[in-house]
Amino acid sequence: MKPRSTRRKGGGHTIDDVARHAGVSPMTVSRVINDERNVRDTTRKRVTDAIRELGYAPNQAARSLASAQTLKIGLLYSNPSAAYLSEFLLGGLDQCSRSGIQLIVEKCEPEVGEIVAIERLLASGVDGVLLPPPLCDSSIVIERLKTAGLPAVAVASGDPLPSVSAIRIDDQAAAEAMTRHLIGLGHRRIAFVRGHPNQTASRLRYEGYAKALGEHGLTVDDRLVVQGYFTYHSGLDAADKLLNLRHRPTAIFASNDDMAAAAIAVAHRQGLDVPRDLTIVGYDDTALASSVWPPLTTIRQPVAEMSREAVTILADAIRRKIDGQPPAATSELMDFALIRRQSDGHPPAGDDGDAPAASGA
What pTM was estimated for this model as a whole? Predict the structure, then answer.
């Protein structure tokens, strides 16, 4: 069997040939061709040298068509956290503005359903779609986009499907890091507020919490694990349950900042000082984390930067499609950071956290 040619029918090289020759990804080549700014000078030179050496010429007819109309990217969202969505929109709108891309936003209402929402977005004539959580994990939405032949980028999916490009952080490792931090402060009764079960990231964050406990000879006490839904209200309910236990936790690790902020409110209502009487930490590092008192110790997930990069990845996929290049799903893992502020501390004096939790007020 003859090896498949990587050349166009006309004999010219493809963008993949240029990428291999320069030792970079096809996405980087596309960024150089489109004169985008987020490419290092040394990398840009390698790509331009490769283009010159190979005599690569982009499909000019297709590129003329692409430049004659603004790319339209759709954002389909159904996220219960206003703080998360605000960060995501901030990054996406900024990158779209820099790149001359039109962003069309469509909300997926629970009573309407995913199919109706995605059909409305498709009817608007978008060239590709951004999928923040929880829709990043929707097989229904992703399969419909695949059928329509539109590229998509799943953002913050814990287990992205292979048919779409994805950008995320290591949620399990991040939750492990935060739990180890709390153990290092001396906490042993560490409660955990789970995220919405419709998101794979929720499972990974819980697994990171459980793994870190196990590494230090601690077991998960089911009475200290409460279901939340990434909303402020669900955080109020979860904190009420935890703080009315006979042996309440000395620390609460909430799966997002909204629920952590709610836990702080419940603690204040019960006359508890944070962090002197109770440590509370969150996840995401949205603007809310530094707006509450005390400011939250949290895991920084670079939501705005992930959104910016998702726009770039999607625009590249659209241009590849216009240029007649085969689709190429990519997966990027971004760094997280543990941001320590003023909501965490050592357990209260005389409470080493060794007493077992027991239900009851």
Answer: 0.78
